[in-house]
Amino acid sequence: LPQSLLLNKKILITAGPTQEAIDPVRYISNHSSGKMGLSIANEAARRGAQVTLVLGPTALNAAHPAIKPVNVTSAEEMYLAAADHHKQADVAIFSAAVADYRPEKPAAEKIKKDQANYTIPLVKNPDIAQSLGAIKRPNQYHIGFALETDEGYGSAKKKLKSKNLDFIVLNSLLDPEAGFQKDTNKATLIFKSKEEIKTPVITKEALAKIILDHLESLMGTTETT
Ligand code: C5P
After folding, report:
1. Distance (Å, whole) CA 2 – CA 166
2. How far apart are CA 147 and CA 144, in angstroms?
3. Looking at the record's lineage, which domain of life comes first (predicted)?
């Protein structure tokens, strides 16, 4: 068997949800389990990569000894950890479901229910994939995800461009087999430099293999010999 092009490569993976504090006992978050990112981390480690997994709060754990987990809670923490590891990374895979907004000023004490209505001012979180995409070096590869509740092709193409990705993996929640907490997925891989491909319904482990096969094929075609 030929050696994997990922052997000894440094791969940064963001995975899982983020939690944005409202007060000391409450937060805003989403349904991400981190399964897709963990599957990619495990498969990349199996291929000999050195993986840094920047992981939001989830019950799941990294399984392979070649994975260095960095546990974070909020989007800002995830951004700082990812930016730090991105400097050395050959590949960055953004699979985290980052909260788009956070409470502007988390309350220091538990908020009491003595008002009929309560409004929480929100401010925008940093877009990790976009910020790091803006400083991406020519020899770095970036992969992102797009989860849409509609068909989503047009917005995925926009994200591919605005986040400066080499390819984006589009999942649609219209597919009953795809999405949060599920073990299976069905995806369209949309590339910067070639025709897109659609996968059938497959496990997240199988999708991880397909994603890394396509990454290796991009690395192989751009590598000078
Ligand atoms: O814009 P949207 O959230 O749909 O983009 C999804 C892609 O961007 C995913 O790869 C996700 O990990 C990444 N992202 C990010 N930081 C954010 C929001 C999204 O890295 N604040």
Report:
1. 24
2. 10
3. Bacteria
Q: Which amino acid is at 104?
A: E
Q: Tell me the helices (H) and strands (E) count for the chain, helix number first.
A: 5, 14
| Domain range list for the chain | 10-103+121-222
Task: Give residues (CB < 6 A) around ligand 1.
Answer: 14, 75, 94-96, 98, 125, 127-129, 144-146, 159, 163
183 annotated binding-site participant: no
Which residues of the chain fall short of a pLDDT of 50? 224-225
Instruction: Name the CATH superfamily housing domain 10-103+121-222.
Output: CoaB-like (3.40.50.10300)
Residue 145 alpha carbon, nearest atom of ligand 1: 10
pLDDT of residue 225: 42
Q: Which residue has the tokens 């059938």?
A: 200
Q: What is the pLDDT of residue 224?
A: 45
